[in-house]
Write a sequence for this structure.
């Protein structure tokens, strides 16, 4: 898709050297993560995203300043949550970014002139009791009822990934109730929501991945 770049990264392959280029807000958020493995994966995801953005922009990772955007808190280098982004020489880069982490992997997306959202879901994470009531719309629960039981985990993971990707592209995340979001609706021409092939991204087959694009051509 023109202007859209998507890449997967195994977080264990991300070296710690890139931590030196992370900004104060990123280090502060990492410091608040008590579990050492979760903290390491958070840092690896941020390093991978910075490296990815630098390649897309044709600059060095050290040239970028993290500046996330939150609908409630605003945007800027002091924000450590929300839609990820960077400043270059103090100005916005004009590139939309999205990051999703799951089970040791990260999925990254960049869009030029179009807001993007990606999500990565492992099938083992969607089988908990009450998932359908929390995540699915009534219409989706009807669709799921027609899915063979052995395919239900894959279907649930795909539905969840599509919803999260769409909400990330809109910049709201889970401030919007996912049970109000249709994952398989007919969207306007300005909205594209699609499943991504894990094999093509180099991901294990137990994952579902989705990309949402708002605007652009």
């Amino acid at each position: 898709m023109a202007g859209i770049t998507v890449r997967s990264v195994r977080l264990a392959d991300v070296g710690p050297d890139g931590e030196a280029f992370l900004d104060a807000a990123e280090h502060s958020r990492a410091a608040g993560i008590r579990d050492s493995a979760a903290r390491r994966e958070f840092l690896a995801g941020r390093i991978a995203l910075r490296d990815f953005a630098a390649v897309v922009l044709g600059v060095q990772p050290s040239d970028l300043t993290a500046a996330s955007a939150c609908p409630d808190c605003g945007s800027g280098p002091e924000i450590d949550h929300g839609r990820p982004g960077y400043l270059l020489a103090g100005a916005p880069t004009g590139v939309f970014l999205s990051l999703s982490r799951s089970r040791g992997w990260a999925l990254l997306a960049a869009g030029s002139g179009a807001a993007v959202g990606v999500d990565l879901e492992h099938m083992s994470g969607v089988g908990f009791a009450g998932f359908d009531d929390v995540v699915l719309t009534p219409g989706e629960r009807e669709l799921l009822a027609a899915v063979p039981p052995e395919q239900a985990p894959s279907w649930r993971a795909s539905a969840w990934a599509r919803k999260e990707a769409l909400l990330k592209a809109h910049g709201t995340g889970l401030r919007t109730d996912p049970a109000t979001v249709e994952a398989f609706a007919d969207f306007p021409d300005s909205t594209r929501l699609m499943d991504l092939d894990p094999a093509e991204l180099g991901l294990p087959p137990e994952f579902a991945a989705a990309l949402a694009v708002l605007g652009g051509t």
Summary: The two ends are 9 Å apart (CA to CA). The CA atoms of residues 109 and 136 lie 25 Å apart. The chain has a mean pLDDT of 94.
